[in-house]
């Protein structure tokens, strides 16, 4: 039975490459055509494959519907939370999780620092979109025309001397973030607060959320915080893997 299931499932990645006829499926599986036909008929009955008028088979609509339903029911916060807690336990600093919704970047999870100095941020509160590291990651992943249109309509408050001053500078920063795959806010929102962030990606490679580690200068310098970037990125990668189903659950804090 397990061999039959394995063979049936092996048909799906084959058809993902494009339509194939019975002979091609049988050859790929290394089975007789009658065996391949039985497997294809079973998958067809469940809507996972579809037989075209030219007698070739392709992936069925039911498969895409299942994938879409699964994605809609995924909760990135639920998946990420344990990873954020482990990271916080290891480094002690504040950890945030954020998403982009309706032209705002919102915190959807936070694990507080163990140090007496705490970050003034709340779950559900929008971030300072032109300076926050998580915002840069989320907006950098937008298509170019969307990035440009958004940048042009934003206000650019100068929270500090290091704040992003205008749309041109913001677009340049987003291009840099898009290329390097991580972001920082080194005193751009508050002079005394620094932040490093990494993206969380879905199965299609798009950024679905961003996580960050933030700390005040009195606890750790900007240079010291930047040394944590590899650990932050490994944590984000572990969350991405679990969210997208690409990798098994594992402890990302080691």
- How much of the sequence lies in strands comes to 15-25%
Question: What class, by secondary structure content?
Answer: alpha+beta
Number of strands: 7
Mean pLDDT: 89
Low-confidence stretches: 248-254
Q: Overall 3D geometry?
A: elongated
Distance from first to last alpha carbon: 38 Å
**Share of helix among residues?**
40-55%
Over all CA atoms, what is the radius of gyration?
23 Å
Strands of the largest sheet, in order across it?
4-3-7-6-5
Q: How is the main sheet built?
A: 5 strands, antiparallel
The run of helices and strands is HHHEEHHEEHHHEEEHH
Our count of helices gives 10
Verbal overview:
- It contains ten helices and seven strands.
- The protein has helices at residues 2-16, 22-29, 33-45, 61-72, 76-91, 133-140, 144-153, 167-180, 222-226, 229-244; strands at residues 49-51, 57-59, 94-101, 104-111, 183-186, 193-201, 207-216.
- The strands form two sheets. Strands 4-3-7-6-5 form a five-stranded antiparallel sheet, with helices on both faces.
- Residues 248-254 have low confidence and may be disordered.
- Helices cover 46% and strands 18% of the residues.
- With 254 residues, it is of the alpha+beta class.
- Helix 1 (2-16) crosses helix 3 (33-45), helix 6 packs across helix 8 and helix 7 runs antiparallel to helix 8 (167-180).
- Strand 1 and strand 2 form a beta hairpin.
């Amino acid at each position: 039975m397990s061999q039959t299931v394995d063979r049936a499932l092996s048909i799906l990645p084959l058809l993902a490459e494009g339509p194939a006829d019975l002979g091609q499926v049988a050859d790929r599986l290394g089975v007789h055509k009658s065996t391949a036909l039985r497997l294809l008929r079973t998958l067809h009955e469940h809507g996972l494959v579809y037989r075209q008028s030219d007698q070739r088979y392709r992936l069925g609509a039911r498969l895409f519907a299942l994938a879409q339903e699964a994605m809609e029911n995924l909760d990135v916060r639920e998946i990420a939370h344990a990873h954020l807690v482990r990271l916080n336990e290891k480094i002690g600093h504040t950890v945030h999780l954020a998403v982009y919704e309706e032209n705002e970047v919102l915190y959807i999870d936070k694990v507080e620092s163990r140090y007496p100095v705490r970050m003034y941020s709340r779950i559900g509160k929008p971030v300072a979109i032109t300076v926050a590291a998580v915002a840069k990651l989320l907006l950098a992943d937008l298509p170019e025309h969307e990035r440009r249109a958004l940048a042009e309509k934003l206000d650019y408050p100068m929270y500090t001397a290091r704040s992003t001053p205008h749309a041109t500078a913001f677009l340049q920063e987003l291009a840099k973030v898009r290329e390097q795959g991580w972001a920082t806010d080194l005193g751009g929102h508050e002079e005394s607060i620094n932040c490093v962030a990494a993206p969380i990606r879905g199965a299609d490679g798009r950024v679905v959320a961003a996580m960050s580690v933030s700390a005040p200068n009195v606890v750790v310098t900007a240079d010291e915080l930047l040394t944590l970037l590899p650990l932050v990125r490994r944590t984000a990668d572990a969350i991405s893997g679990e969210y997208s189903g690409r990798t098994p659950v594992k402890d990302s804090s080691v």
